[in-house]
Amino acid sequence: MFKKVLIADDLISVNSGVETLLNELHIPQITKVQYCDDAYLKIKEAHKNGQAYDLLITDLSFIPDHRTQKIISGKQLVVVLKKEFPKLKIIVYTVEDKAGLADNLINTQHINGYVSKGRNGLAELKEALKLVAKDKTYISPAIQQIITGSATKNITHNDIILLQLLSQGMPQSQISNYFKTHQLSPSSLSAIEKQLNRLRDYFGAKNATHLVSIAKDLGLL
Amino acid sequence: MFKKVLIADDLISVNSGVETLLNELHIPQITKVQYCDDAYLKIKEAHKNGQAYDLLITDLSFIPDHRTQKIISGKQLVVVLKKEFPKLKIIVYTVEDKAGLADNLINTQHINGYVSKGRNGLAELKEALKLVAKDKTYISPAIQQIITGSATKNITHNDIILLQLLSQGMPQSQISNYFKTHQLSPSSLSAIEKQLNRLRDYFGAKNATHLVSIAKDLGLL
DNA sequence: GCTCTCCTTACGGAAAACCGTAAGGTTTTG
DNA sequence: CAAAACCTTACGGTTTTCCGTAAGGAGAGC
């Protein structure tokens, strides 16, 4: 089991609840923070001192307040940490029940667990801790069901990029150029159109605007 | 101060935290529920028995689980209750820090308070309880600042409808027809175009897709 | 009454999105 | 190797969006 764990959640009540669970599991070193920046600094310093954390349990949404922060979301925190400290295990513990988001984080950021807070979130978190300690990946059943169930399968990284650019108001011609300069293929305008057509079909969207709306609802964006 | 209060939040930890606060304020009757349907039924029954609740404190997002529910979000719950029991005061207590959403709920549903959970959410909730008891409306300072600050002012109900239809993939010509049949004016295609132009300008959107994306981020949709 | 202003509608042209078809390449397969 | 299947790109036409300009109408103020 883990020896040194960092908990990052802005809500004190949640934060404490997780700590209680970790105590039950007899984890010796537990640190709690309420800001992403604090989480990053703690992990960086511990690593430098040769006393690295085994695990980070983090929320995704951190409510901004008077303290200006460099890292303002759990997603950003995950991206930065997984890049800088690949060995650090990360469990995301959040209320966001978006399957697309979970899928995204697991496949592109390689997080080790995605647990949705909920009526019995702590029980799921306990299960996740056991599995992740054994180098496995845990996803909350509800989320897992949605992912394997229907939507958000067959969606490639290119699709996500296309949807992101689209949601930023970029016309298809420019998206084609973007794909060319970033060496994403296929990149022709015709190919972009085809890709979009496929996505519209897949999600049952009437047009690009509708498509972006659906993607945002699913948490893909 | 209030005598009979219902708390609706799916997360037990939050639920308990609020209860503790209400105890401190010496509120005699406190009920907790974890589902929107339960909240609705409790309120309906209490009203029928002539022992109506004074106040509902509710979250907005309720995570779905095995129990199938008729009312699946706090927003739906608010709409239903404010229609059926206009005298019931409602404070929304949520992590959603979307100014557009708060604005929307206050102006169209006439909720009495919008408190964002956060690092000192309970302190704000306490303040809200005092004000709402005096028939005033409370909005968390952070949210208030955003609303009065810049965005989401000057956005009419028609604008919201337009954005919603747009996000559902409806072409402008059909939106014009929709406005005509629902007696919303102006309704001509030209007017719809103009309205859209204004909204694009206002939010700095490049096109309709971008506009919908921004509106969703702000919580207007 | 009148004019002025504001709101709504109408129109025309350029840009972009949408849609089908087909040509040129590449990979797979027998 | 050759045929087939698949992928990528190209092109033309229709619809929709975007944008400027202008005409028609209602109301405000003089």
How would you describe this protein?
Two copies of one chain form a homodimer. The first copy, chain A, has a six-stranded parallel beta sheet, with helices on both faces. Chain A contains ten helices and six strands; from the N terminus they run E-H-E-H-E-H-E-H-E-H-E-H-H-H-H-H. The longest helix of chain A is centred in the last third of the chain and has 15 residues, at 189-203. Chain A is 53% helix and 12% strand. Chain A folds into two domains: 4-149, Response regulator (Rossmann fold, 3-Layer(aba) Sandwich), CATH 3.40.50.2300; 157-218, Arc Repressor Mutant, subunit A (Orthogonal Bundle), CATH 1.10.10. With 221 residues, the first copy, chain A, is an alpha/beta fold. The A-B interface holds A 10-14, 16-17, 34, 61, 63-65, 95, 97, 116-119, 121, 142, 166-171, 205-213, 216, 221 and B 10-14, 16-17, 34, 61, 63-65, 95, 97, 116-119, 121, 142, 166-171, 205-213, 216, 221. Chain A binds a DNA duplex (30 and 30 nucleotides) through helix 9.
Domain count of chain A, please report it. Answer: 2
List the secondary-structure elements of chain A in sequence, H or E.
EHEHEHEHEHEHHHHH
Query: Which architecture of the largest domain in chain A does the CATH hierarchy give at level 2?
Result: 3-Layer(aba) Sandwich
> Which percent bin holds the helix content of chain A?
40-55%
Strand content of chain A: 5-15%
Poorly predicted spans of chain A: none
